[in-house]
Specification:
single chain; Rossmann fold; UDP N-Acetylglucosamine Acyltransferase, domain 1; binds coenzyme A; Trans_hexapeptide_repeat; repeat; PglD_N; transferase; Acetyltransferase
Length: about 260
Amino acid sequence: MTELLLVGASGLAREVLILLRNHPEYAPIGILDDLPGQRGTTVGGVSVLGSLDEVTRHPAARVLICVGRGEARARIADRLLALGVTEDRYVSLVHQSVEVPEGCRIGSGSIVLAGVVLTADVILGRHTVVMPQVTLTHGDRVDDFVTLCAGVTLGGDVSIGSGAYLGMNAAVRERVRIGPGAVLGMGSAVLENVPDRETWVGVPARRLRAAAGDPLPPEAAAVPPTTVPPTTVPPTTVPPAARPTLPALVVPVLRAPWPTGGIE
Ligand SMILES: CC(C)(COP(=O)(O)OP(=O)(O)OC[C@H]1O[C@@H](n2cnc3c(N)ncnc32)[C@H](O)[C@@H]1OP(=O)(O)O)[C@@H](O)C(=O)NCCC(=O)NCCS
């Protein structure tokens, strides 16, 4: 079994642990969280081992950051990098109900929950979180550290900048750009480009709040976009019979009876 450390004693970690239950290859060995007083508590039956510094005690463990806010994930990734956790240590977790068609790609450290639909040529960056029933359509481009809450729907060729947070059931019109660090309120219908770090709400969506004074964490702003062209993604060869036995997908475990895109 491959050891897996989760980072963040959060509701998202509980959801991830449900997907990992009885996984044939990955065993969660603990949760790391910097919040004081967490050590020794349990989340979803798994112990909080202590602060992020504990990661150095488990050099062979793979890592998954389970924190809902993308800017916080970016800060954590930066802190873990300083502790020696390079990008190849991260896994992605994709619910088995999610088809990843050829031409779609999911970056490392991403979490994609049940019922998410990727139609064609959808690119998800690193450390994205895509909650249940999100629909991503042709040509959508979602940069690193983005969070898409449950029920978000993107029209075709939408781009979402790094660290943006789209609240539940937000809908974005085709070809619209959501800037890095922007926030969309629950249920908003976005018809035009949203500038960096602004908060927009409503139907049609209007600006609720200008960009805050504090800048995006440099690691989120500086992360280069995921640039692997969809055409280089090899199809997987996992036999259809393997699929029903997997409670979840943690790369590099691959499953799907249909041709799939890449999941780092
Ligand atoms: C947009 C959002 C970030 C604003 O939060 P906030 O800064 O705490 O703002 P407030 O709740 O103080 O509301 C400020 C104003 O915006 C309005 N507002 C807030 N959210 C709104 C929304 N989604 N749609 C329309 N109006 C909204 C409030 O009614 C209030 O209006 P008022 O000043 O006229 O009374 C938040 O409401 C939101 O939608 N978050 C996403 C939640 C979500 O999807 N969670 C999923 C967790 S998994």
